[in-house]
Amino acid sequence: MPHPHTLFQLTGRGHAPASLAQATLLIIDAQEEYRSGVLQLPGLNAALEEIAQLLARARAIGASIIHVKHLGIPGGLLDPSGPRGAHLPEAAPLPGEVIVQKRLPNAFAGTDLHDRLQAMGHLDVIVCGFMSHSSVSSTVRACKDYGYRCTVVDAACTTRDLPTPEGDVIDARDMHRAEMAALADNFATLVAHASVLG
After folding, report:
1. Separation of alpha carbons 58 and 111, rounded Å
2. pLDDT attached to residue 96
3. pLDDT at position 67, please?
4. How many whole angstroms separate alpha carbon 94 and alpha carbon 168?
5. Which of 21, 27, 15, 187 lies closest to 120 in space, CA to CA?
6. Are 130 and 70 in contact (CB under 8 A)?
7. What gap in Å lies between CA 55 and CA 35, rounded to an integer?
8. 198 — pLDDT class (breaks 50, 70, 90)
9. Is 72 in contact with 80 (CB distance < 8 Å)?
10. Domains, in order of start, for the chain
């Protein structure tokens, strides 16, 4: 059996990684829940370092930045008015930076994200954040529906262990790896680290 190819390779519809200067940086759900709440992510610190690098570089060159914040359950997961819903300090927005608030995993659903991206004028979107298999995945997939070209920074995303219907556990690293492969198949150009981006 031949080595498999991505749909991008088979169709010739792939694209080069985006440049920070000519893209919008989309940071998804960099919130305290994933550090100290019920949804603690084992790879958080390393991913957050990558996000902070991306954010610092984007700010230094005046690139477009959008922070996505999930409005969760009052008193519970991603509490919108409590500390668990707060932005992580390392990736917190500065005054004047755009914040899009969402209630569903897909950051386009019920929000003005598409209008915001259109106003910024970039076809390319660089995506990072949490969780790989949920909000990152659903937003990247929706980007394709809206006609955007996504670049996902692998090391700037992570997720958590997940239970299977059979009672087993999928390790967070395996879950993340599988989701990155799925996105790279037909939805986004995948780069390993923030440093790869021009």
Report:
1. 23
2. 96
3. 98
4. 42
5. 21
6. no
7. 19
8. confident
9. yes
10. 7-196 (3.40.50.850)
